[in-house]
Amino acid sequence: MKYTTLPNTNIKVSKICLGTMTWGNQNTQDEGFAQMDMALDKGVNFFDVAELYPVPANAETYAETERIIGNWFKKTGNRDKVVLATKIAGPGDYTAHIRTTGFSKDALNEAVDNSLKRLQTDYIDLYQLHWPERDTNTFGQRDYKHNPNEKWEDNFNEVLHNLDELIKSGKIRQVGLSNETGWGTMRYMEESKYSDLPRMITIQNAYSLVCRSFENDLAEISHRENIGLLAYSPMACGVLSGKYIKGTDKANSRLNLFPRFSRYSSEQSNEATKKYLKIAEDNNMTLAQMSLAFVSERPFLTSNIIGATSLEQLEENIDSINMSLSEDVMKAINKVHEEIPNPAT
Q1: Does the pLDDT value for residue 252 go beyond 70?
Q2: Rounded to 10 degrees, what is the CA torsion of 94, 98, 99, 103?
Q3: How many whole angstroms separate alpha carbon 202 and alpha carbon 222?
Q4: Which of 229, 230, 233 is nearest to 210 (CA)?
Q5: Which residues have a catalytic role annotated?
């Protein structure tokens, strides 16, 4: 395994992070336990979860993933071996069963306390805001369109003050963002600099061969402000395994179960995936290995969040950290990116 530190801290994390959002829906508790066992054995010490998991979010399975992790901590006593990240859900129709109070002080206190209870721990290493409260383009939505009737008011300073209290209480250690834009990221940075408030140290956004929009402006912010990318969906919901274009997918494969992620299987995404598959095969790699190695080698990356529904997938994904892409492979990848840029954004 390869390791780095969370930016501006001495917290050592593996460059492969174990994603967990299938546990409690596509995966049972026992399967989640087996994945955590394997990941830890292979040197993965960084686990990522969220209060709304498993995905897709609904009232029946709400927070089941955190409960599974908490039960594993209780069974194994391995809490001190894991750097644990979780998130508070942002507002929206599909999270109304959780709460409708956004990132208010009461909402943050409730969310943190409930996560701690479910996770059976006294502290959370990295606490993230799952997506912005304001109206903006997230989850593959292209091109910002301003809503003149938006009710949100600038509360960056207030949110950081409330997170500061949680840090001082010992319930959380560090804070980060998720599904955030360049403007929102810089507003948080501005408030932390000039108001002596906690600093956002990571940003968890989608990043893969078919979704490189992070490079538009956030990559520069990442370098200049030292905020690290936690890349999610590096396999584009399994599309970059090649199974959908090869026809080897199963009925319980993610895109077959949840068509809401169809941006990853659009006509342009499929065309790009075919080209990436040829590059991988021409260079004696699986598409999954090449896709994950590409993400892991980005200079702005802190950790690559991989997920799997089987131990076989998980092992291949974790072992991708040992792959290194040649200059010729990178040239071929970038040529495809020039021809079909960001088809899943």
Answers
A1: no
A2: -90
A3: 9
A4: 233
A5: 53
Note the pLDDT of residue 158.
98
pLDDT at 115 (0 to 100): 98
- Distances from the Cα of 201 to the Cαs of 63, 122, 185, in angstroms? 25, 21, 10
Question: Residue 48 corresponds to which tokens in the numbers above?
Answer: 């990522």
pLDDT at 142: 80
Q: Quote the pLDDT of residue 264.
A: 82
With residue 265 as reference, give the H or E element that holds it.
none
303: pLDDT strictly greater than 90: yes
CA–CA separation, 183 vs 187, rounded Å? 6
Can you say how many angstroms the Cα of residue 81 is from the centroid of all Cα atoms in its chain?
A: 20
**In the predicted structure, residue 11 carries a pLDDT above the cut 90:** yes
DSSP notation for 231-300: EE-TTTTTGGGTHHHHT---TTSHHHH-GGGGGGGSHHHHHHHHHHHHHHHHTT--HHHHHHHHHHT-TT
Entry field: residues in the chain: 345
φ/ψ of residue 39, rounded to 5: -60, -45
Q: What percent of the chain has pLDDT over 90?
A: 85
Confidence grade of residue 249 (pLDDT, cut at 50, 70, 90): low
Euclidean distance between CA atoms 269 and 236, whole angstroms: 10
Query: From the centroid of its chain, how far is CA 59?
Result: 22
Q: Is 83 exposed, middle or buried (0-12, 13-18, 19+ CB in 10 A)?
A: buried
DSSP 169: H
- The tally of CA atoms less than 13 A away on the side-chain side of residue 314 is 25
Residue with tokens 């179960």: 257
Amino acid present at 319: D
Q: What angle do CA 150, 165, 219 make, to 5 degrees?
A: 60
